[in-house]
Structure formats: C-alpha cells, structure tokens
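Weekly puzzle thread! Below is a chain. First person to post its structure in token form gets bragging rights.
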Amino acid sequence: MVPLAWACLAAGHEVRVAAPPGLEGMILRAGLTPVRAGREVDVTGVVRGFVKGPGNGNGNGPARSAQAGPSAKMPRALGMFVDLAVAMVDDLAAFARDWRADVVVYDPTAWAGPLAAAAAGVPAVRQLYGVDLLFPARDAIVRALEPVGDRLGVGPVDPLGLLTIDPCPAELQGPAPGARQRMRYLPYHGVHDRRPAGPPARRDRPVVCVTWGTTMSRLGDEYFLAGHVARALAGLDAEILLAVTPGQRTTLGPLPPDVHVVESAPLRLLLPGADLLVHHGGAGSMLTGLVHGLPQLALPELPDHIAHAGRLAATGAGVALNPAEGFGADRIRAAVEGLLASADHEGSARRLSAEMAAHPTPAALVAELEQLAGARAAGRAAV
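Winning reply:
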C-alpha cells in the first residue's frame, strides 16, 4: 500500500496509516505518519495451523491433507480476521471521525477499514495485494461482521467497499466481480540504511533466484525451505542466487559452493538479472517476479500461497508443486530444469508483465480517490 500512500502525499493530500502498535516503526521507516489503532493480536499460532504439506524443511516427512485453497479452513480464518477487526475498529472509527477523513483505503483482510468508513460516513476502498481470495466468502464475511456493525450503529457492511483496487493482470486474477480499478504493481521492499548488495556478476549460464519472503520463517524454521531448495539445485548448470534476511541466513544450513547468498536486497534490484524465480507462493514475490517477466516455481505451504500458486500455474507463467506430495529434492530439481528449458513459461510471464506495465500507476489513481471523496477531497485523504 506504500506506493499509493506516497502518490496521495505527492498530490498534496494528507495521509495517515492506521495499524496496530507493532507496525509503527515500519510505517515511520516508509516515510509515512502512523496512527495507533487497537491492540496487537497474536495470529502466528493460528496461521501455523493452516500449513499444509510436510512442513519439516526437507520435503520428506509425512504429507498432510491435500485440500488446497482458502476454503479449507475458512471458518477459522474468518474468526482470525474478525478478531483483528474488533481489535482495531473502535480506535479507527474514532480517528476517522475526529480527523475528518475523506476516504479509507484498506487491505482485503483489514475489515476494520470498511467498518470505520461506515461509522465516519466516508467511502471505503479496498486495495488487493494479490489474487482476490476472499471474494467468494463475501456473504460469510458480512454475517461475521454484523455484530460489530450493530455495535457501531452502522448495520451490515460490505467488506468489498465501493471500489476494489487490483494489482493483478486479468488472466491471473480470473473472474473479478464488482467495481474494480487496475493499478500497476510497484514493488516496495522497505527502506535501507545502506546500499543493498546486488546479484553476482553474470556468467554464461542461467541465474535462478530463490526467496522465501518473511512469513514462513516467522512460523518456524521447519517451514523456511530456501536452504533445502538451494541444496536440491546443487550441481545444476546455473547460478543460484539466494535472497534472505540476516535472521534467515542463520537457518539455511550447509550450502553448495555455487550458491550466492544476498541479505536484505530488494527483489526488484535482483530480478532483472535472473532467469527464473523460486519462492513460497507469496503474492509479493509472485507479482514482483511477474513485473520482471520471470517464469516461476512455487512451493506453497499456506492456503493463500497455494491459491496464488495455482492461479500462477493456470496462466502458464509458472509451475506449482503440490505440498501433499512433498517437496523432495528430485521434484524441485526436475521442475527447475523443465522451466529453464521451456520458452512457453517465459512467454506467458512476459505477456503478464506487459499487461501489468500498461495498468495505471498509483499516481493516476489519486484522481479516482478524489472523485469518490467528492467535494471533501480538496485537502485530505486517509489510508
């Protein structure tokens, strides 16, 4: 959401980013103004319970349920997101009213956003970070939020808001009902206090970039498979580029000599020199890879990652391994070799990349937010 917030600031509007206290430092480092809303909710244990597949770090453990997609445990996920909304909504609604916000922009799991917008009587705009996985649960979400809406005196609230901002190419997103505005995906990877390291010097063989985001390592070392993937590719006629955080590096284990480890380097700086991206199925990694037209291999373990990886594979721009079958080294290696040898996957990735580049920039969408806000948008916008 940072590029759109910056675009609103650059257009002369005021922006506040409401979030639980634990995100305050991250918001400040992004050059934005935080507003503390609510309390922390520990969701790590709940999310860990969603993991599918072996989850033992080597792909050879006993497989769990093969059921994929967010519907596998939707009631539990709904409860988690409702808890997050309840934790934030009172503070957020009070701030939106007192600050006289004109628009509330929220991510698709931050349901305090549309509730607070309804309480303040202003438009609510939903900004997706990937495939619209929660749209099928729209009716269930409305029912789940009814008690909160009744307490606020706003009645039933539509979690989709008045408009959805969508960063995905149409083919990746699939059917997308409701008022929807495409927006060019601009990768944001934080603010760095030193010049980030770049990729190794290019040689006369392919470069495979492996990244595992930040979510899986927070769930536990056994779910962080980047080192396992690198070992699976030992001896492959390719340069292996492993993008990790400093904390993740300590969990990688022994690595082959042809693996180049880069710490805290933004993917957007690494991927222009790569030929293939291997990751955990996270939306940010996937969309950043598509920005650069890269074919991808996904090894997803969480339901939303499985769903994103499935949509990616359906476009032809990548391959998704089934966690129920394990992530053994032979399967990983065979998938990477197949992707490197295929021009079709690269062609599909480049097609999606071209579509994304044609989407309006965040700066172009500021006028859309102003129009929704109407006459009150002359000088304020709230995110």
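Puzzle host: Confirmed. Bonus trivia for everyone else. The first strand starts at residue 17 and ends at 19.
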